[in-house]
Input
Amino acid sequence: GGDGALLRHLCRKLRASGPVTVAEYMREALTNPAQGYYTRRGGIGESGDFITSPEISQVFGELIGIWYISEWMAMGKPNTFQLVELGPGTGTLTEDILRVFNQLSSVLSKCDVSVHLVEVSPKLSENQAQMLTGGKVQPSPRDESAYMKGISKTGIPIFWYRDIQDVPSGYSFYLAHEFFDALPIHKFQRTEKGWREVLVDIDPEVPDQLRFVLSPSSTPATENFIQPEETRDHVEVCPEAGVIIQRLACRIEKDGGAALVADYGHDGTKTDTFRGFRNHKLHDVLSAPGTADLTADVDFSYLRKMAQERTTTLGPIKQREFLKNMGIDLRLQVLLQNSRDAATREQLLHSYDMLMNPENMGDCFNFFALLPHHRLVHPDKKDKPEVKSPLPPVAGFNELLLK
Ligand code: SAH
Output
């Protein structure tokens, strides 16, 4: 154990078999089963390494809960759905969503809801169990696909899995908040001799220090992941994000539902975004692996390309626009009116500013959705020539209209 163990493990591996891709390095640093950052540390929140929107304000998760209810209504109120969250962190976001489901239980009364959490970190899954069930969970028998299960404080069954493929099929609403940015990326650099992949190696001058090098020739990844029409000189690609988006798109096409992805990112324009955070400060990505969160901006243009044939996509739309469309201003007014002391009001205004101000999280965070094609376009009208009711607009990407 100890903070140097992962570095020593990586150095042994690099000495034995040469440089590794940035993706392999990132995977080890974040999710190595013994020494990875999420496995051991996973410091989300004020006392940790990075803070996320659900940790800043309960309003964030509440509005996302309303998004699911609004889509559930727009899709004709199916009598059952699964809420599937990828990378639930501390469990706060799910908690806030379940509170909304409980407050609107009269609307959801005839609907059978279950929660399915995809989490690789044993440490964070314990935090989630504590938050959502008060610790009342049991490990699942080996022949079940979930590794743990419990019942939420509001009576909803919750299951934990390591992989999205383990989640049972069925009508599902998916959620990925600050999940895709934690998946391993490959990095590429344009050179005079063509594209080269950026690799991680040991620095020959300094013992136990890592450095970036370029592959001497092209690699399988440079052949497969760089588009011929690419104009940037430096490109980051996250194939694992592509695979997961394709899985979500297949499931939505087959069983119905929707996916909401929220993350910082760009639409295929940014270059070098790979960075580390420790104690809320930027941290050198190559130093002390396993002790800092490593992250890269999500390329939404890549996600859209991976999903498009099977589902419709909406966004990316800026967080401040999405939350405004969802009614955050009205929600803030109600909370301000209901709070008696100045300190609480101050806190409410501060967290609103954190989420909405373009200088804070308002502009750099984006919302992106996958929906079945028929959610936005009526199936061929020739079959049924009679006039159809118009499809309701998708909330968040348009103004919320609850009827
Ligand atoms: N959604 C939360 C947490 C974001 S941190 C929030 O916004 O606060 C990223 C989360 O993804 C953590 O829970 C981490 O353990 C999990 N994670 C990272 N890589 C994963 C993978 N490959 N499979 C499943 N979960 C993963």
